[in-house]
Design brief:
Number of strands: 6
Distance between the termini: 52 Å
Strand content: 15-25%
Strand order of the largest sheet: 3-4-5-6
Order of helices and strands: EEHEEEE
Bound molecules: zinc ion
């Protein structure tokens, strides 16, 4: 019984033109700015009309709607909450040079983690659930959560 939830991502509704995207990594030949409406983005500055504060005009400029922007913001916040919950589910601290798996608190799937001297990674197997890499000071305990301080007013 592995009922994995789906975590669909709405369009990344930024303040750029909705046709604009930027392909990474820059080492690939087709990386860089792209226009879904077909405008040539290869010249320096060609993407300036696509920016949140456009310089130059484009006849195909199209904005995301407020609803799309709200849906994107909500998805980002939900994603951050899933990651925070995932971190709280990890052993604390994770011993150096170890890895393991715990049950994901968000979806019940496999939440994998690894810790090395200057970093750590956590990621859920479920598509779109949560995951991140962290740079951590060498030999620092991680993750460590501040205990909710009981006010001691005697
Ligand atoms: Zn998960």
């Amino acid at each position: 019984m592995t009922a994995h939830l789906a975590f669909p991502r709405p369009p990344k509704a930024s303040k750029h033109c909705r046709h604009y995207s930027y392909k990474l990594p820059i080492t690939l030949p087709d990386s860089g700015p792209h226009c879904a409406a077909g405008h040539d983005m290869s010249a320096p500055g060609a993407a300036m009309p696509c920016m949140p504060e456009p310089r130059g005009a484009c006849c195909d400029r199209a904005e995301y709607t407020d609803q799309e922007r709200a849906a994107w913001r909500a998805a980002v916040e939900a994603s951050q909450s899933r990651l925070a919950a995932a971190l709280r589910a990890l052993p604390s601290p994770i011993p150096l040079r170890t890895s393991g798996t715990v049950k994901c608190p968000n979806c019940g799937g496999a939440l994998r983690y690894a810790r090395w001297r200057r970093g750590a990674e956590v990621g859920c197997d479920t598509d779109g659930c949560c995951g991140a890499r962290f740079s951590i000071a060498a030999d620092a305990d991680w993750p460590v959560f501040a205990q909710a301080k009981e006010e001691d007013r005697s």
